[in-house]
What does this fold into?
Amino acid sequence: MIGGLFIYNHKGEVLISRVYRDDIGRNAVDAFRVNVIHARQQVRSPVTNIARTSFFHVKRSNIWLAAVTKQNVNAAMVFEFLYKMCDVMTAYFGKISEENIKNNFVLIYELLDEILDFGYPQNSETGALKTFITQQGIKSQTKEEQSQITSQVTGQIGWRREGIKYRRNELFLDVLESVNLLMSPQGQVLSAHVSGRVVMKSYLSGMPECKFGMNDKIVIDKQGKGGTTDDTVKSGKQSIAIDDCTFHQCVRLSKFDSERSISFIPPDGEYELMRYRTTKDIILPFRVIPLVREVGRTKLEVKVVIKSNFKPSLLAQKIEVRIPTPLNTSGVQVICMKGKAKYKASENAIVWKIKRMAGMKESQISAEIELLPTNDKKKWARPPISMNFEVPFAPSGLKVRYLKVFEPKLNYSDHDVIKWVRYIGRSGIYETRC
Amino acid sequence: MTDSKYFTTTKKGEIFELKAELNSDKKEKKKEAVKKVIASMTVGKDVSALFPDVVNCMQTDNLELKKLVYLYLMNYAKSQPDMAIMAVNTFVKDCEDPNPLIRALAVRTMGCIRVDKITEYLCEPLRKCLKDEDPYVRKTAAVCVAKLHDINAQLVEDQGFLDTLKDLISDSNPMVVANAVAALSEIAESHPNSNLLDLNPQTINKLLTALNECTEWGQIFILDCLANYTPRDDRESQSICERVTPRLSHANSAVVLSAVKVLMKFMEMLPKDLDYYGTLLKKLAPPLVTLLSAEPELQYVALRNINLIVQKRPEILKHEMKVFFVKYNDPIYVKLEKLDIMIRLASQANIAQVLAELKEYATEVDVDFVRKAVRAIGRCAIKVEQSAERCVSTLLDLIQTKVNYVVQEAIVVIKDIFRKYPNKYESVIATLCENLDSLDEPEARAAMIWIVGEYAERIDNADELLESFLEGFHDESTQVQLQLLTAIVKLFLKKPTETQELVQQVLSLATQDSDNPDLRDRGYIYWRLLSTDPVAAKEVVLAEKPLISEETDLIEPTLLEELICHIGTLASVYHKPPSAFVEGSRGVQHRRIPPRAGSVESAESPEVGQSGSSEAPPAVIPSQGDLLGDLLNLDLAPPTATVPSVQPSMQMGAMDLLGGGLDSLLGGDIGGSPSMGAGLGAAPTVMPAALGGAPAVGGGLGDLFDLGGGVGMPTGFYVVPKTLWLPAMKAKGLEISGTFARRGGIIQMDMSLTNKAMSVMTDFAIQFNRNSFGMAPAGPLQVLTPLSPNQTIDVSLPLSTNGPVMKMEPLNNLQVAVKNNIDVFYFSCQFPLSLLFVEDGKMERQVFLATWKDIPNDNEAQFQIKDVHLNSDAASNKLQGSNIFTIAKRTVEGQDMLYQSIKLTNSIWVLAEMRVQTGNPNYTLSIKCRAPEVCQFVYQCYEMVLKN
It folds into this structure.
């Protein structure tokens, strides 16, 4: 299991050092600094073995988190734990920075003592932790409160405490998708997938039992068999094939496995209900058509057309097209029909920004790139043209069909809950080779 | 007010100041002081001097302060054990606190204080906490047992904590169950044979129930524990699989990977024709693909595991090629791993896409990645024959880019393509030759030279090209020098007339001006071959080369199987068994996949246990080292990284057996080039006199062509059929069976070496431990070609009896060490004593009589040889074949008395009297010898010879 956990600043100074196992010595702290943080070459693996000691590290801005072990630990678990540790810290004091860590080092030690025992991760749900690890020092608790805390930390529903009350029962569902594309210069889709998340903010009283439904092809097809033919025709078009999905630990997985229904008691506040991935019938919101022409050895002509491919009534926002330029670029002239375009020498790219663009439109940029003559034999690698945007629909086609709430013990029904649903599609890695 | 100020105090006299503050009456001030102490501790300052003052702050009802003091205690208690005792009372008191959080805190911290005296006090509170009414305290106490076990295992056993811990598996709270499982698994690891984690269907059922209810981390502990269970039959296996599959949808990647581990392992037991088996296979792919959208570090772990899974069960991901395409922004470690998997998944169906991608990658920035991409193109060509042409043209395109390292890498892989598809793509040689000047890496130069030598007859100016390399001969690396030597010899054999001068030049460069023994030896071999028998030289140097196969870096099946059992863990990330990187007893247990129920294949070869993939293992490009391979120049490194080496893990006990002998076995003279420089003392006059100082001389060159010449020579010596001496299981795939024979006065050890591993074996050598009769190899072990997988080679090793002597038990025991490129292996075998019966063992009658009388009667031993249906003459003839000589025969009352003599190699005489009664199949044998301990073995020889 995890033998120790260290947090360093960018200089390699130790901010937090907690050793859990006897086989990890003080020199392990230095070994990591010398061999990884101060290494001459950039480290080529997130797992490093130094003198029979294994180091797992992740970096958040310029802070290094390293877990150390001498045993054959579950590597996936160690990384999951490090991410979780980051989440917990962020939930407690915001951004992970040197300043914040130094300011909260007592709290961090307290957390580390609680969520990692002898190197074994323990309950690390922020909701539960916040009930008894606080920055204000421990509140005096009654006996009932204490046993409530412990039963929550160890209980089956460790993510929610009992007795939550809201005057207004309300929930927000955000379907957040990132659409990824790799396209050949000729416009052929090399790979495309959507990775989506359903994020829920729940402000519900009591211990509500929820059921979430979406236009999952498997569910719709199953229901279609029993229903009229009309239904199948209608729903058949709208359903989507989900390649795979994963759920927050509140979702009853065995029920999903057998009935494909998503039922759960949600944590209070914001959390990620599910993640999913689709690869079929993706709506690609934009198409990029590049044209690069080399005019002699010192000039390059670039023309890029973007086409929006969705309902004209919808508006895409925050559009940014990034056209890479060679390293020996000496000057760039840009003409674009819409938005603003700039050559950024430090990033070796032309950045073209458009605030808004409606569906079924087209826009174009052309640039002349002057090159310095070099005798470098190596050809320019031509990195792909990448794109960023945000659209108000789900490129996967996912639709929320229902989210039902039942709380038999309290007197509010599904109809009383105010529900909000929002769809946001963003670009993931959206690249076109040129 | 911020806490970061505590990190910045650096003034002198700090300790004294802190001391004063710690003893302050004001609570706030005290707490501030403790914070300062902890901050100093974190940055590495020694604040142990404050121990008593900090411990004094322990008695407080402020939980935050208490936690800080505990943190300090955990760090310094070991260095101040006597002081630490002061804290015990508070701990014991806290374990009784009404607040469960404080009880748990106390027991958790106490377990972290590694001071013997404290652990004694810990037992009682721990016992109470294990049965505490609050689950939070129980789950903490469960882990505490593991802590205590780490400090004092005996104490834990004596106090009966293990049983209490086992009871916790049935606890009503899932988190308590999970922690108990984790603690028990850890303790069980240090007691490999204890039945501590007594997994039976009932406990498994409990675990599976807890699995649905506990935290994500608890699910990982339980799944990892489940993976160690071996279901009784395929039905149980299926029902566990069914209950584990829902975990594949968990958001936590570690839960998913651990579930995959359980499924991959238990699947092995399911009959392949079962519907469920197919369903399960289909269910595995999507979660594995989903892992690739996790954070990069987890992607890396997932990819390393997928690499194993793809080797074990290629069918799972065969349609998922696209998800392994490299993204421009992937970290380099993700890119390199993806590339590896892409090649593994490449097939005729997707090769076009793969090639287009690889070509794209070859223009990226990262040099390592580009090189790997170029190599990958070569591997595709070798793997998918239909694509070879396209690969070659892609490589040519890349060569046109003139990017130095791309060109060099391309040339290296083109050489492999030539090996795989001889006489097909030679048209590209011209293009390659254009780039001769830009090659500055030894591997690329060597590859180019190999190509020129191999196709010398089609390259008009081959001699000029090679000559140009020859100018800087001494500045080249050994690899290039060896290659150049061979290439020029090849050229000479193909175009003898024009290149005589060149070959003279290179031979003298290699033999006279070089300090490198490998180069010198190879030079001499060629020289001698060329000068004695050019036809033989042609046969050797221009011999047809074995084909290379597609898969070049597969992990050896036994290792792969073990790694599959370690999915998700570090072992699967390193692709090494845990014993290779974990110290001590932990992780040394080898995990195995349970055999499939009713599987025919696994029943046949239990030691291979590879029921899943019993297809013929692909041959692998031989790696360097052996003589014939050297001469043929097969020794260019295979196109990709080699299989990770397996650490010696078994048979460590046998190490001492050989004593000093081992050193010489591992010594340089065998390691480098066995059987080289053979018999050069008698070389023809072309050999320079300097040879006198050449390294140790082994068997003659004749051996090269006359493999084990003595085999099958007709003698009367009875040879026992070969028996298995070294099972493949114990020797990483090398199987040795053998027997002994005496032919024409020479003792020979006949062995069959079989390679049952996946990789080629080379560099064989043999050594004996000292033995009763001083037997020792008379020459090196002549295994001249690399031993490919599934290949068997018969070798005859001549033995001498001039080696060091040590009495063995039994007398005819022989302990042998065999070395190859993988490891050293030990076995022992017993030889028949008749091996040592020399040909001049016929005694004079007079001497016999005198000797018989001379040996005291105490030394006489009598034996019965039963069921022999031979008359005395036939028996006598038969025995003579084994050098047991009949000197005289007397007939008394229908009973034939045969007097016989035997001489052993160490000049011990054995006399025997054999009585044969006509019609009675039982003989009576009396043996007399000055060394009576041999009698028993002589008798065995009689039995053996007469009955066969």
Chain B has a mean pLDDT of 80. Residues 135-151 of chain B form the longest helix (17 residues).
